[in-house]
Design a protein that fits this description.
about 260 residues, TIM Barrel, 8 strands
Length: about 260
């Protein structure tokens, strides 16, 4: 069993063949796809799309690139969407200090507001972090301290992880999972390969982040949920473990984190 824990199949890149894309994923053993919103409109469209497919679930939120566009009432709109059982998380939220498409102070403000929303709704978070690990960690650390939970509480996932194993362990101590994408298959993925090897298997998620970050075998082309199988194969290779064990464990972790209705 496989689960693509982070995808964007609501985007126009999939408008012509979305049914076929999901069919190919099922053929590869993908039992579910978490489609992740980028802003209020994307989140709404994602939920409308998910109502057409029994194996698609949704996270709703404002990506840091879109933080500057969040307006009054948007948080309330996101909260309304969570009334549907298909919405399983708040995301993707976080900080991106690589592209800086939204001013950093606004990114920080919107990130914190959405963390508060997740607490109010008792939902996990899907966190985007690019060249901002110190800031993201400090904010999450403060958030965890301010929202007491059980010792083994699962707070969310650091998606498309881009740090080293030391950074990963710090997030895990806060109660987060670490998700690996197709970038772990790239020839330049030295630190990510170490993360894939050393990460506790019970804290691993797998994703595509499609249509972005296609695995090496399809690099430069559109990514899609079926290709999560290639990431599972790479992680299994570097861990010297059966691919079925890696795929099944990551899938079960995803089910637990997002409370998916999958047995």
């Amino acid at each position: 069993m496989l689960i693509d824990s982070h995808a964007h199949i609501d985007l126009p890149e999939f408008n012509k063949d979305r049914d076929q894309v999901l069919a190919r994923a099922r053929q590869q053993g993908v039992r579910a796809v978490i489609n992740v919103g980028l802003d209020a409109e994307s989140s709404r469209k994602s939920l409308e799309m998910a109502k057409k497919y029994d194996d698609v679930f949704v996270a709703v939120g404002f990506h840091p690139h879109e933080a500057a566009r969040m307006k009054e009432g948007d948080l309330e709109s996101l909260a309304e969407l969570t009334g549907d059982w298909r919405v399983v998380a708040i995301g993707e939220i976080g900080l991106d200090f690589y592209r800086d498409l939204s001013p950093r102070p606004r990114q920080l403000e919107v990130f914190k507001k959405q963390l508060d929303l997740a607490s109010e709704l008792s939902l996990p978070v899907v966190v985007h972090c690019r060249q901002a690990h110190k800031e993201v960690f400090d904010i999450l650390n403060d958030w965890v301290k301010a929202t007491p939970a059980d010792k083994d509480s699962k707070r969310g996932v650091i998606h498309c992880f881009s740090g080293d194993i030391g950074v990963a362990r710090r997030y895990i101590e806060l109660g987060f999972y670490i998700s690996l994408a197709g970038s772990v298959t790239y020839p330049s993925a030295g630190e990510l390969v170490e993360v894939a090897r050393e990460l506790p298997l019970d804290r691993l998620l797998l994703e595509t982040d499609c249509p972005f970050l296609a695995p090496q075998a399809h690099r430069g082309k559109r990514n899609e949920p079926a290709y999560v199988a290639l990431t599972a194969e790479k992680v299994a290779e570097v861990r010297q473990a059966p691919v079925g064990v890696v795929a099944e464990t990551a899938a079960r972790n995803t089910i637990e984190l997002f409370r998916l209705p999958i047995s």
